[in-house]
Structure of GTPase Der:
Amino acid sequence: PVPVVAVVGRPNVGKSTLVNRILGRRQAVVEDVPGVTRDRVAYDAQWAGRRFTLVDTGGWEPDAKGRAAAIATQAEIAMRTADVILLVVDAIVGATDTDEAAARVLQRGGKPVLLIANKIDDQRLEPEAAGLWSLGLGEPFPISALHGRGSGDLLDEILKLL
Ligand code: GDP
Ligand code: MG
């Protein structure tokens, strides 16, 4: 069976941008307005000759209060259905309560999780990624989904976990 990699995180952190970066084409819907991605969308992905299914998550969250629960639920679904989970966080914003709620779910899960510190668009921003150690998911992996910075290394890391 083809392994499944799920991308979870709160709206607007760059999940769909990362999915497009990995696919090498624009297929996932990227929007400045949060909540545009339909609930879960699966794509056929490939890197270094290995195939995997990449699942983008989103959904419509009516308000900030409902949002934490929605993301935690996405994390729980990912935990049950994926082989590797990427928790994407906006490293410039830093860890929010919603990120922490998702991280707690993923800590208990026993599935491999990569903590993605996104929006590290240049080297000066690297120190921002270190702030995400507080999520308790190990070393934050700094990338810029928008510019592709770090994405090759990230894909190599994903393959090691499949
Ligand atoms: P999603 O809601 O998590 O799927 O987030 P999107 O992929 O739709 O991205 C939300 C916004 O963040 C868009 O305006 C993206 O262009 C922007 N974005 C995504 N990744 C990066 C990045 O690495 N750096 C910067 N500066 N912006 C990004
Ligand atoms: Mg999206």
Residues 15-16, 37, 58 surround magnesium ion (ligand 2) (CB under 6 Å). The helical segments are 15-23, 64-81, 97-107, 126-130, 151-161. The chain has a mean pLDDT of 89.
